[in-house]
């Protein structure tokens, strides 16, 4: 864009800006320092939250004694957590990892499943048993979908095993990184179940390879990180867990330095476009940008790119 055109855009944006509002960028670090660390704000039992970098929230599974298996409390807390992060102005990007557990996750908690079996056994009538299962499956589906519904990009960092529910979960994330020792299994058929919390819908779309996904879904075959990488399930491999977390947090920090209006508008539109036509996707982003192009972020970003400064953005 030439300087004249940029000047014209800037002067028209200045006239749109709120009267008296500063056109200068606000200070990212000052804004971040005034924000509480996620560890003070969020108190979950099966999840641990911290703020390793301004506006980056690190969510760690916290059931190491059960290999981060998904019991009812973990399902519920994941949904509560992502619903809350969605509306949290101190969070712009989320990194989700397996914490101190030996594995990222062992999938659904098999002891919890046995408890559910006992609850079902206590109900005499099939229609009522069906209702209990419907409610449970819906809760678990909503848990996985909460990553997608959260406007903040979610980067998952997988180490060692990522089984069943875990594989469903990561396909709802925005970016998937893993260690070289990571392995995956769409395990549901091995416990007599058709996967029902999103993998059959999202996994083929993520990798664009029906044949490979169907083979994995029908057999529950374990596959390693290099196979996951070569099919595009994960986009980067790391030598170990430490480097994995460093890489994920570095990416998160970079995204967090961008305009939250632009990043969140981008995620909304990518998610929407995933199951709409090209034209519907274009209509959707046009409606978003009718508003977003009037925001101070647009002005700040253009001014910063012209002056070769790093733009900073206020909380959203
Ligand atoms: C409506 C439903 C919607 C959702 C459906 C989801 C379905 C699924 O997720 S299917 C997948 C279910 N998961 C599995 O089948 C995995 C079973 N576990 C394993 O294969 C191994 O344990 C694993 C490879 C994860 C780890 O092996 P490792 O040798 O490293 O450790 P272990 O000694 O086997 O396990 C250590 C302790 O963790 C407990 N544990 C492991 N997995 C689970 C689990 N899924 N649920 C509950 N607990 C689990 C294991 O019992 C050991 O406990 P302890 O003996 O007390 O030390």
TrEMBL record:
<dbReference type="GO" id="GO:0006635">
    <property type="term" value="P:fatty acid beta-oxidation"/>
</dbReference>
<keyword id="KW-0443">Lipid metabolism</keyword>
<dbReference type="InterPro" id="IPR001753">
    <property type="entry name" value="Enoyl-CoA_hydra/iso"/>
</dbReference>
<comment type="similarity">
    <text>Belongs to the enoyl-CoA hydratase/isomerase family.</text>
</comment>
<comment type="function">
    <text>Isomerization of 3-trans,5-cis-dienoyl-CoA to 2-trans,4-trans-dienoyl-CoA.</text>
</comment>
<keyword id="KW-0413">Isomerase</keyword>
<dbReference type="InterPro" id="IPR029045">
    <property type="entry name" value="ClpP/crotonase-like_dom_sf"/>
</dbReference>
<keyword id="KW-0007">Acetylation</keyword>
<dbReference type="GO" id="GO:0005777">
    <property type="term" value="C:peroxisome"/>
</dbReference>
<dbReference type="GO" id="GO:0005739">
    <property type="term" value="C:mitochondrion"/>
</dbReference>
<comment type="pathway">
    <text>Lipid metabolism; fatty acid beta-oxidation.</text>
</comment>
<dbReference type="GO" id="GO:0051750">
    <property type="term" value="F:delta(3,5)-delta(2,4)-dienoyl-CoA isomerase activity"/>
</dbReference>
<keyword id="KW-0576">Peroxisome</keyword>
<keyword id="KW-0276">Fatty acid metabolism</keyword>
<dbReference type="InterPro" id="IPR045002">
    <property type="entry name" value="Ech1-like"/>
</dbReference>
<dbReference type="InterPro" id="IPR014748">
    <property type="entry name" value="Enoyl-CoA_hydra_C"/>
</dbReference>
<protein>
    <recommendedName>
        <fullName>Delta(3,5)-Delta(2,4)-dienoyl-CoA isomerase, mitochondrial</fullName>
    </recommendedName>
</protein>
<dbReference type="Pfam" id="PF00378">
    <property type="entry name" value="ECH_1"/>
</dbReference>
């Amino acid at each position: 864009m030439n300087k004249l055109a940029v000047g014209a855009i800037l002067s028209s944006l200045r006239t749109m800006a709120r009267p008296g509002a500063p056109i200068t960028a606000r200070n990212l670090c000052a804004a971040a320092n005034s924000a509480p660390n996620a560890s003070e704000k969020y108190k979950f039992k099966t999840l641990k939250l911290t703020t390793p970098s301004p506006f980056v929230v690190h969510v760690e599974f916290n059931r190491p004694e059960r290999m981060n298996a998904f019991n009812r409390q973990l399902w519920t807390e994941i949904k509560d957590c992502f619903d809350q992060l969605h509306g949290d102005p101190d969070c712009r990007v989320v990194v989700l990892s397996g914490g101190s557990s030996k594995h990222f996750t062992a999938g659904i908690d098999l002891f919890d499943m046995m408890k559910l079996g006992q609850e079902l056994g206590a109900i005499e009538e099939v229609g009522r048993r069906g209702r209990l299962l419907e409610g449970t499956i819906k809760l678990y589906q909503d848990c996985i979908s909460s990553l997608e519904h959260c406007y903040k990009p979610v980067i998952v960092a997988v180490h060692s095993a990522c089984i069943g529910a875990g594989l469903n979960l990561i396909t709802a994330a925005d970016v998937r990184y893993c260690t070289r020792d990571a392995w995956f299994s769409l395990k549901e058929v091995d416990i007599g179940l058709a996967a029902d919390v999103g993998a059959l819908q999202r996994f083929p779309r993520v990798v664009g390879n029906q044949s490979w996904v169907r083979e994995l879904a029908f057999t529950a075959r374990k596959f390693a990180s290099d196979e996951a990488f070569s099919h595009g399930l994960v986009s980067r491999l790391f030598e170990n867990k430490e480097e994995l977390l460093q890489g994920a947090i570095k990416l998160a920090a970079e995204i967090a330095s961008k305009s939250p209006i632009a990043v969140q508008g981008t995620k909304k539109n990518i998610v929407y476009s995933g199951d709409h036509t090209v034209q519907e996707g274009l209509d959707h982003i046009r409606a978003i940008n009718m508003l977003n192009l009037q925001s101070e972020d647009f002005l700040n970003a253009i001014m910063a790119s012209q002056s070769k400064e790093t733009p900073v953005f206020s909380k959203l």
